[in-house]
Amino acid sequence: MTFQEQIQQGIPSQLPQAKPYETNINHAPKRKEILGEEEKKLALKNALRYFEPQFHAELLPEFREELEKYGRIYMYRFRPDYEMKARPISDYPGKSEQAKAIMLMIQNNLDYAVAQHPHELITYGGNGAVFSNWAQYLLTMKYLSEMTDEQTLVMYSGHPMGLFPSHKDAPRVVVTNGMMIPNYSKPDDWEKFNALGVTQYGQMTAGSYMYIGPQGIVHGTTITVLNAFRKINKEPKGGLFVTSGLGGMSGAQPKAGNIAGCVTVCAEVNPKITKIRHDQKWVNEIHENLDELVGRVRRAQENKETVSLAYLGNIVEVWEKFDQENLRIDIGSDQTSLHNPWAGGYYPVGQSFDESNAMMAENPELFKEKVQETLRRHAEAINKHTAKGTYFFDYGNAFLLEASRAGADVMAENPTLGREFKFPSYVQDIMGPMCFDYGFGPFRWVCTSGKPEDLQKTDDIACAILEEIQQNSPEEIQQQMKDNIQWIKGAQENKLVVGSQARILYADAEGRMKIAEAFNKAIKNGEIGPVVLGRDHHDVSGTDSPYRETSNIYDGSRFTADMAIHNVIGDSFRGATWVSIHNGGGVGWGEVINGGFGMLLDGSDDADRRLKSMLFWDVNNGISRRSWARNEGAVFAIKRAMEAEPNLKVTLPNFVDESLLS
Ligand SMILES: NC(=O)c1ccc[n+]([C@@H]2O[C@H](COP(=O)([O-])OP(=O)(O)OC[C@H]3O[C@@H](n4cnc5c(N)ncnc54)[C@H](O)[C@@H]3O)[C@@H](O)[C@H]2O)c1
Questions:
Q1: Which one-letter DSSP state was computed for residue 349?
Q2: DSSP state, 425?
Q3: What Rg value do the Cα atoms of the chain yield, rounded?
Q4: % helix, strand, coil for the chain, step of 5
Q5: Label partner for 273 (CA 20 to 30 A): which of 161, 311, 335, 398?
Q6: CA separation for the pair 99, 78 (Å, rounded)
Q7: How wide is the angle at C-alpha 93 spanned by C-alphas 90 and 96, nearest 5°?
Q8: Residue 250 CA: which ligand 1 atom is closest?
């Protein structure tokens, strides 16, 4: 069967051969044993409803074994035999170009070079799923291959509910992931309902098919490291940045440190992952001996080297050793996966990686104690450094939240609403006031032709547009414009493409709209093929997350999620090709609501109309909310937007004289 025929077939009418468990690829860890005997039967019944009854007797023992062994039913047997990768859009079968673009993006999110656990359909973050099982994948691709532009595919947490009649301006796909009744949104609820096969954790861009590999995160991390050094008025050259994690997103830290030009020390407990990052040249050296590491860092500081050093071991050891040795750390952070602390996101100090992996499955209570003990030690060591002048920020990984839950010394002396912790989050100090409040966020695009020359042309177009806008930009956003022009100029040289021909840069509403408009024109003129636009959910308007994206909202509304919900509704009726809304993301299940969109530019007048309407809303919704929260940059930005668009009329806040309240 050809690739196209296999897609059109959906779930095969004859059972494919059972597939061996491949040991040479990265697999998801065994999930917590959470279902009782009756619930296990329910999980099996739920899985079998994808298949005709004649196959149930054969599939039942296999699915039961998967559930027992891995804690989930992935239906490995149904993994397709064709290569999993984004193909040129013309290779996909179907009646709708928009649907074909979505198939391309789904495959890109499951590409072995892109996905973290490709056989478990996990793209990143340990649990960020595109689908929960292979039947869902096969059915979804089949629906997309047969739908027209008068239909919408409805996705319930990985499950394709079906095609419903709609109209050509409606989204082709509407995705929800992990949407729970609020009281059922604790971490164990995810374990249970995911094991039952009725919900999934979409992370941010995994469940919305918008992950483009590590490039997005390299860019965001570079911007953060550069601005962190600006915050402490220090040149990155010769400066020391200490952090941890070489995983999916965290692995971008040493590369970003190198682009920024500082000395980076990044601890990682997992030897396999450390080796991957080293082979990839994202980290320059691996050290296993702390004394040697100290000597190497001192030399790098003295010589103002640009170098990244991995420490294969626990981050707590690094903070403690550097304190004993009085090594000056300029910037400190942490990117262990504390959104997922009890299932492999954070490793206790004083025991081996393998011991920890065994303990979390066999003795989860003791494991939890060890994690919390380590968090207390971790915070104590950081406190010693910050007392000596280190600037520490939380990197949106729930470090401060989990450390506080463990009773670590991280609470502010005089906590206020929004400033509960001793340390700021990177959004409170950096991303929020410098980027999001002005509308700058992670805009991205994918060239669906798959041609590198198309990407090069789009880079050139985007760069020319940004340079033109910069000429008349106000002082307030000059730095952001400069950083992004420099980024796009170096993007080809930095060889950031993994998987599809994709690019990311930070742009505000004006930049995003003008770049998209220029792409659409170039497509119309036949200069490039169709382009998919999108963004990370980690953006101005897409995400309500009180300890991350909206942590610099201080009017008490950061625990509300109206902005993210409005965003996805507004995008859907303004022309997005697909929209998504998720519970859970970087900081954990129940801790965030986030959404995003995808939009196909095909060179048509319809695309031109949609992009202007949707992108304007997609950014200004968040700016208006940030402005109402009295964020000064956002008040400035929304006033500018109202001047540019007379149909925009936003309620502005009045500022109260604080002395009246005291
Ligand atoms: N990069 C960003 O801009 C960004 C933004 C927001 C949030 N985050 C958050 O950062 C976290 C990390 O994301 P990821 O995709 O890299 O996850 P990941 O699970 O792929 O990587 C985390 C790594 O930390 C390692 N680790 C755990 N405990 C350790 C310890 N005590 N010492 C040393 N290493 C340890 C793990 O082995 C793992 O490789 C997530 O919580 C994510 O939400 C990142």
A1: T
A2: B
A3: 24
A4: 45, 15, 40
A5: 398
A6: 22
A7: 80
A8: 16
Q: Give the atom of ligand 1 at the shortest distance from the alpha carbon of 398.
A: 41
Beta strands 307-312 and 285-287: pairing type? parallel
447: CA distance to ligand 1 center in Å? 29
Distance (Å) from CA 244 to ligand 1 centroid: 7
Angle at 442 between CA 440 and CA 447, to 5 degrees: 130
What is the rounded CA–CA span in Å between residue 275 and residue 303? 26
pTM: 0.90
Choose among 209, 207, 5: nearest CA to 94: 5
CA dist., res. 51 & res. 15, Å (int): 10
What does the CA dihedral 499, 431, 459, 594 come to, rounded to 10 degrees? 50
Classify residue 4 as exposed, middle or buried by CB count within 10 Å of its CB (0-12, 13-18, 19+).
Answer: middle
Answer whether 601's CB lies under 8 Å from 529's CB.
Answer: no
How far apart are alpha carbons 612 and 607 in whole angstroms? 9
Alpha helices by DSSP H, listed for 331-428, are 353-362, 364-387, 399-405, 426
Whole-number Å distance, alpha carbon 221 to ligand 1 midpoint, is 13
pLDDT one-digit tens code per residue, 354-370? 999 999 989 999 999 99
pLDDT tens-place string over residues 16-75: 999 999 998 989 989 988 999 999 999 999 999 999 999 999 999 999 999 999 999 999
Please indicate whether residue 335, judged by its CB atom, sits closer than 6 Å to ligand 1: yes
CB–CB of 381/319 below 8 Å? yes
